[in-house]
Every structure is written in structure tokens, then in C-alpha cells.
TrEMBL record:
It comes from Raphanus sativus. This is V-type proton ATPase subunit D isoform X1. It comes from the Eukaryota. Keywords: Ion transport, Transport. Belongs to the V-ATPase D subunit family.
Amino acid sequence: MNNQPRGRIRSLSSLKRRKKKKKQITNFSQRPINLSDLLAKVSSRGPVVNMAGQNARLNVVPTVTMLGVMKARLVGATRGHALLKKKSDALTVQFRALLKKIVTAKESMGDMMKTSSFALTEVKYVAGENVKHVVLENVKEATLKVRSRQENIAGVKLPKFDHFSEGETKNDLTGLARGGQQVQACRVAYVKAIEVLVELASLQTSFLTLDEAIKTTNRRVNALENVVKPKIENTLSYIKGELDELEREDFFRLKKIQGYKRREVERQAANAKAFAEEMVLEGISMQRGISINAARNLLEGGAEKDADIIF
């Protein structure tokens, strides 16, 4: 054992550790996962909070002017959010009304198409199979036409289609041979079917346009509510905090300056008082013929050390 190289011993031990770790991973992967336990662990961690708009703020300079600007922007964002919310509610009401109309129009469209198909079958049975080609050959221009217009609902322009008749119907020679009554009934049935189809096309086009407008409005409402307003509010809090901190610093600085000035005034007053007392004492001593200042100068001069005398 001692003759084996040390590197081979290390490689064997590392290989054993790898096999043991791989076995643990395999046992863990084969272990069944309990969904309830997983949900309990996730719920125990608390709700997942979106931190995108919680602490985000605008990069501004904390000044009083910027505080007023941010307040004005917050007021504008609040008003815009309220207006967009009302617009979304109005569009939603119109959307539901359009949905009901579409359901009714589709139900009536089925009945109309069935009636018109039966009428065309009766015409072909009475007047022959060539009646369709005869009608197409004799008609040069359509009598029933469709025009488009726009309707404004809460700032959204919805397309509308209206049908109208233009020109005279060429039914002068209808029924001379046979099947005149059936041809007229078929014509009336198909006119009603076209009216229902035009109305349904108008409703469905307005439905799609309104759906896109509602989605866009809801995105704007969510952006104002979850991004813009929190960011402005965080910016206002930041500016107010910085201004309060500056105010506290200025107050502390003023207190320090006032304390320094007060101590300076007290020191000057004490010096003035001491000088006044000294002058009073000097006056009293001068009356007695003795100068305190002169005596003090003599004492101070005598207290000085004499120079050394070298012989």
C-alpha cells in the first residue's frame, strides 16, 4: 500500500465520492414528489412580491422645486388614471351590449339564410334552373349598396356599415312566364338576409375594434396604477426625506452657531466685567498712592530668573 503512488490513492477516493454523490442524486430523482408538500413550502415563504415598482423612483435632484413638479405630476397621473378607468368601464359596457347584439344577429342570420335558401329552391323549381343566369345577365349594377361611417364612443372610433337602395329594381317583366310570385318572395328574403349580414359585419368589426381599444386602455390603466404612480410616490418620499434631512442639518448647524455666539458673548461679558473690576481696584489703589499694575509688574519682573554671572 505504501508502494502505490499517492496520486492514485487520491483518484480512487475521489472516484468513490463521485459514485456516492451520483447514487444520492439518483435516489433523490427517483423519490416521488408530493405536490401538496411543495405548495405548502412555497406558501410558507410568503407571497411573491413584484419588486419592479416597489422601490423604483425617478432620478431627480431633491429640491423644493422638484417636489412641486412631482406633486403636479402625481395629480396629473391620478386624474389620468381616473379618466382611463371611466373610459374602460364605458367601453366594457358597450362591449357587452355589442356582444348581445352579435348573438341576436347570428341567430336571426341563420333563420334568414334558411328562409332565403328555401325561397331560391322554390324559384328554381318553378321557373327553372336557368333563372339565376338570367338574373345575372340582366342586372348591370347592384341596387342594394353599403356605405361605411364612423361612430365615436368614449374617444374610440368604431366603423359602422349602412345599407341603402339606389336606382330602380328591374322587375317589370317578372312573372310573365311563370314563377313571378316566388321570384319576388326570393328577392325580399335575400334583401332581408343582406341587411342582417351587413348589420352583423358592422357589429363584428366594431366588436374587434372595441376589444383592442379595451386592451390598450387596460394596459394604460395598469401602467399608471402599478408603475407610474408608485414611482412618483417613491420619488416624493425620497425628496421629502432628503429635504427633512437637510432641514435637520441646517437646524443643527444653526444651533451650533448660536451656541458659539452665546459663549463668545458670555466670554466678552466676563472679560468686560473683570476689566471693570480691575479698573475699580486700580482706582482705589491709586487713591491710596499704590498702583496695582506697577506692583504686579515689579513682582513679575522679580520673578524672572537673573542671568548667570560668569567670572
